[in-house]
Amino acid sequence: MVEGADIWQKIVSEAEEASRCEPALSGYFTATVLTRNSLEQSLAARMAEQLGNEYIPAGQLYDLFVEVLSKDKGAIKKVQHDLAAYLDRDPACDQYLMPLLYFKGFHALQVHRIAHWLWLQGRESLALYLQNRVSEVFAVDIHPAARIGGGIMIDHATGVVIGETAVIEDDVSMLHSVTLGGTGNEAGDRHPKIRRGVLIAAGAKILGNIDVGRGAKIGAGSLVLDPVPPHTTVAGVPARIVGRPSEESPALGMDQHIEGGEA
Fold first, then answer.
1. Sheet containing 153-155: which strands, arranged edge to edge?
2. DSSP letter at 205?
3. Are 179 and 152 in contact (CB under 8 A)?
4. Mean pLDDT, residues 85-107
């Protein structure tokens, strides 16, 4: 896996090759990558271009995003980890350039990282504004207080909802229409805690302040209301244990099969 500054150099090389192969997009590659000096600047330019409007223009958002990414070194390390996750786990992705420029799940997650930093600095109105813009533009709704690790892949992403007190540890994969929500109008700590290596398949709903243990697998369309033990597979409405994943970290393998022989 390419890491750190090498990821940026690889992205630049990919953008140069893409510009040669598709001259119609050469201006796009130039504006988003080839005139930028770092991954932080490139990411900020792409996100600002998508989220800017008459209230906060793209140029103002760009300055904000670069500022936050330069101050929050932990965020850019998570960005690099996320890029690597897409390349490693998504068979449709064979370049770092692809999630950076085209994958809205990646974009929504990176704006969340910025909104989360702002939230922690007490700039809650701006953080909530960014949450709202991401929901409008990408159809992904992540509360800025949610705590999310690195190496996260949100595939396709449309309809993903992540609540305020949710926690997602490193190396988690999820697909579209996943909800990490509450069970009603309760206050306080009320959202799921997703531990490392978990795979959450499309349409799964995980509700309440419950643990989904390390290396678990949640089947597509499942309704999870109870804690999920580590290294188990659950499926159904309501979800029940149906077996064990064949891998230590299902998120890395992305195998969504649920077989009776897993147990």
1. 153-155, 173-175, 199-200, 217-218, 233-235, 240-243
2. E
3. no
4. 97
Q: Which residues contact 200 (CB under 8 A, 6 or more apart)?
A: 172, 173, 174, 175, 178, 194, 206, 212, 218
Q: Which amino acid is at 150?
A: G
Location of structure tokens 């409007």: 53
Q: Are 195 and 212 in contact (CB under 8 A)?
A: yes
- The pTM of the full predicted model, rounded to 2 decimals, is 0.94
The count of other CB atoms within 10 Å of the CB of residue 63 is: 12
Largest CA distance in the chain: 56
130-138 contact pairs (CB < 8 A, 24+): 130/51, 133/51, 133/53, 134/51, 134/107, 134/108, 137/50, 137/51, 137/104, 138/104, 138/105, 138/107, 138/108
Helix axes 124-138, 104-120, angle to 10 degrees: 170
Do 156 and 182 form a contact (C-beta atoms < 8 A)? no
The span from the CA of 185 to the CA of 15, in Å, is: 47
Q: Nearest CA to 48 among 133, 153, 158, 159? A: 133
- Residue 185 has what pLDDT? 79
Alpha-carbon separation of residue 41 from 28, 182, 222, 258 (angstroms):
15, 36, 39, 42
